[in-house]
């Protein structure tokens, strides 16, 4: 009987031992599965980090093609283009930039052809240097970012009735508008005894029309008699300038691209007539004027380049970028012409180099 009881006890012990072994074996696969899941999660995270690093590398290696449409070769516009390029190279690096720079030789129709070529080739951004270039770019694309420079008044150039400083589309840029009331003050300071002021400008340039309209009001408030002398293109500039010189004590020339391209002609008409020219910008003044309230077109281009960098890198949206203006203005004079005309320039003016 005792042997039988002992056999039963031993059998029970063996069964408990087997059960314990079975329990241990079944728990092992559960631990392995958890380890596998942890490894997979780690690998997924590493893959995500690699992908992010790859995206960052791709972004940092991205290159850009910039189309530059400049209306005409002229010192002021040339300086703006150079400032733009130098600034953008400094911001993004020369190896990431390709400039397709083209000059329309003063022809607005050629501006349109140049812009259409940029659109067809899919440039990343267009620089429109001068008002007709901006107008051509605006007509050519509503998707590619367009930055203007050497543009006087964007609301006038783009025919915006409710312009408040931000275009709100794919267009922004910088303005070369010097204070027109300051230019009127300069005329009064230099020629207080003058009576008749001739306003010489190209009627085909909307921004020129805006400038002479505005400055006329300021001058008339000071007691001057103002007369418009508008020419349609360079072909009739000589005849119109001659008439202006015959009937004016002083001639005012705004920031006008056609005048800028024909300063020698204006000088050859006005100098023999002993009629001084006050100019809207330094390039025109250096060619045919006695004085100007000047901005730096190179600095204007630099500011435009910084805007371009922000657009290309995604830091800023062009539709939210307001038009920027030159921060500083300097009274400058043309020493050679002033001496020939016997004009004494007061203190506070800087000679044009």
Please describe the topology of this protein:
Blueprint: H1 2-60, E1 64-70, H2 75-92, E2 97-103, H3 108-121, E3 125-129, H4 131-140, E4 146-151, H5 154-157, E5 171-175, H6 180-190, E6 196-202, H7 206-221, E7 225-231, H8 237-247, E8 250-253, H9 257-260, H10 263-270, E9 277-279, H11 282-288, E10 291-294, H12 297-312, E11 324-325, E12 330-333, H13 335-341, E13 350-351
Description:
This protein has 353 residues and is α/β, with parallel strands linked by helices. 52% of the residues lie in helices and 18% in strands. The strands form 2 sheets. It has a 7-stranded mixed beta sheet with strand order 7-6-8-9-10-12-13, sandwiched between helices. The protein has a 6-stranded parallel beta sheet with strand order 2-1-3-4-5-11, sandwiched between helices. Strand 4, helix 5 and strand 5 form a beta-alpha-beta unit. Helix 10 crosses helix 11. The chain starts with a helix and ends with a strand. The N terminus is likely disordered.
